Structures are given as structure tokens and as C-alpha cells.
Amino acid sequence: MDRRRFLSRSATVAVGAAVVGGPFQGLAAHAADADGTGADTRHGRPGGYGPLKPVADERDGAVRLHLPDGFRYRSFTPAGSPMTDGAPTPGKHDGMAAFRGRRGTTVLVRNHEVNGPVGAFGDAARAYDPATGGGTTTVVVDRYGNVESSRVSLNGTQMNCSGGPMPWGSWITCEETVNGPDVGNDFTGADNGKLKQKHGYLFEVPADGTSSRVPIRSAGRFAHEAAVYDPVTGAVYLTEDNFGFASGFYRYLPPISPWVGGRLRDGGRLQMLAVKGRPGTDLSAAQRPGAAYDITWVDIDDPDPVFAPGTTNDQAIQAVGNQGRAKGAALFSRLEGAYYQRGVVYFVSTQGGATAPGETAPDGFGDGRGQVWAYNTVTRRLRLVYESPGSARLDLPDNVTVSPRGTLVLCEDGDADNFLRGLTVDGRIFDLARLEPVVGDAGAEFAGATFGPDAHTLYVNVQSRLGMTFAVWGPWHRGGF
């Protein structure tokens, strides 16, 4: 979208600010199918596309996805395969966004959530930190997953989990870590002493170029997950996935509009969400149907703290969030994917809610199987859109996007089979795809779902050591997408 079109759309949004709220405005916290009135999730449900069946990959004939009747797919750029710039494709494909390319193509900017001091992929001389193996790749494809070109667009970062597309034509990629030479190791066998730079920041990647590899430090050093931009308030909203501890919901207020120079500037103000009049509210716990809260924002005084020698990774990863919680910020469980639509930020709490009867609470902070929240940026009101009643309905949602009809697409990161689920505007969950188990790579999961510019194709990653990207197309008009 060019600048003139974006400003025109922004004006339209601002004029209609009194009625923003998105398609889920009236939805209760527990969806209509939570009482068992919907069909079994494994056999399709209202709003869906019917039962799933194994479908062969059009690239090589292998079965990697289970899809409804009439849907097809092609995988591309698997980990280790050479890109057109000569660099090997890194693994751990994760968050992703689609931009309009030339001659009907789609430009995908894609994260790679690689941890540890394993060395940078691509040209190490250009890397932010030559010791680390995360970053982004940019792939130009057609609507059927045929690759035109692929290249390194950011290297030398670490644990690039999710992020968000910016309407001025950039992808903001987020590091889900605070590793660096100044903090202790995050897992047994790691060696942060080999790192050359501090990590835990946002980086901007132009869709038509490469990143400057300069971090946006004022947006905080914490376990970043996703980022979305709101043209009404001019804020970038940020989620935090702090696996073993409470997480927060943030906003970054840039010092200059991103439209000045076409990029997100450092030097702004970081804030954290708090429930108005109820400091320290624990929103990771089970919520009543239709739960809603008026919220306020508290300032983070030191978004990029200096750590004393001997600081552990657990201490460092809570340092920014603890500043907000000391001022009354709300507690969430593992905030992951986020998406902006019509004045509302939808975001996912992966382990929010109560433990379902007969199930075991997952490891980490939070006992439930997932929540979906909606924050109205104009009214400053937070609502619970959906809370999973158990893993059979929704199992640990992660990345999220939205279809042209307003249905949310949720990528699961569950303990058993992982699905792409749809959540319709009237609160019905249905299955779109199931990932065939990856031999020798049990942690494989869906990530980075995003529709192409013409909505013909859903692009989605499998996040694993043997990761790859899929282009999925079919009769979308038959169901909720």
C-alpha cells in the first residue's frame, strides 16, 4: 500500500472510530460450540469445510498436510535448501507476512527462530551478531507456491519468533530472548559468552530490501513475540511470551510518525497494559463469559536495562516486565500472535484459562489451553473473545491472522496433533488443516499463517528443525474464510 492510500484509509478509520470493534464485538468468552452443540472437531463443524483427509504435496508427492476436500498445497524452501542468493535456507520457519509483489507475485518475509551461538547464515560480515543463527528470509512466490527468488534479508539475530507487517511496507521482526554476553545462559549447554551483541529487540525489514540490522532499543529488551501497528493511535502494540513467568501486553509510542522516512524510529516510549482501578489483575486465569475490562497504561522507565555481572537469564527476562508490574500492570500467560483489524488488536494467550477436567496443566506459566483477547484501541476496552474449554477444541494457540470474512486463523502449538483452526465471528471453532507428524522432529508445529494479497492463497510455515513453507489454495468460498 502506498503512502497516499494508507493515509486515506487511516482518515476513514479515524472518522469511524466511534463504531470500531471488529467482527467479534458481541461474542461471549465461551463460544457457541463449547457446550457440545457443535460437531466433533475431528469431523468438521459449522463454518468449516468438512472432514480432513491426507493430501499429497504438489512439490514431491509426500503427504505433509491433511486438508478438506478440494484443497491443494505445495511446499517450498525447506531448511537446508539453497536460496537464489546462494545461502542455505535456515530452519525453524516461524512468523511471516505477505506483501504484494510485481506481476501478480507475493513477497513473503519470514522469521527463523534459531537459538544458540551457532553462527550467522548468509554473509556473516553483514550480520548484526555473527555468532547467532536467527533472522529473516524474503521469498517471492506465485499463488501456487512456485518460487521466483529467495534471499537473506536479516541475519545475526536470535529467536526471531513472530512480528508483524507494517502498512508502510515493512516487517517488524521480534527476538524472543534476552540472550547476550551480559546475561547468563538460557539453557544447559549454551554459551552466551560467545555472543557479540545483546539480543531481545525489534528489527525492521523492508519488504523490498534488507534490514539495516539496527535494533529499536526503546521498544524494550524482553521476550518479544508479535507486533502490530494502529494508524488511529500511532502505536505499535507488542506481545510477550515469557514461558516460565508472567507476560505483559505493551505498546510502543514512536517519537516520530513512521510515515516520516518510512520506518519505525528508536527513542520512543514503552508502556504496559494495566486494568483500570485493579492493579496487578491476573488475566491468565479462567474468565467469566463476556469478560471485559477498562484499561490504562503504565510507563516502563528503563526499557533497555543494563545488567550487573552475574545476572541470570531468569532475572534478565523479567526485568522490563517487573517494572510494569510494580506499577500495577496486568498478568497474562504467554502472549503470542497478534493481528490488527478495524481499530482492534486481537492477541492470543497460549496457556490462558483454567485446566480442563481430566487434563493436565501444560508446563510453564498458565494452566489453560488458550485464550483470544481483543483490545479496542479507541475505547481502551479489553474483551475476552474465546477461552478454550479443552484441548479437543483449541490446544495452545500461537500465531494468528484473519481471513477476508473476518474469521480468525489460529496456529496450534499443542501437545498432540497440531491443527490450523478457524474461529468464526459467531464463536465456532473448526479445523482447516492438520500437520502430518514429522519423523525425527516431534516438535513440529504450524506458524506464520498469512493470506496473500488477493486472498487466493494461505501461506503457512511448519516450525521445526526441518521447517518449510506451504502455499494452500482451494474453495475458500464454501466456508468461514
Automatic annotation (TrEMBL):
PANTHER family membership: MEMBRANE PROTEIN (PTHR35399:SF4), SLR8030 PROTEIN (PTHR35399)
Protein name: Alkaline phosphatase PhoX
Provenance organism: Streptodolium elevatio
Disordered: region residues: 34-56
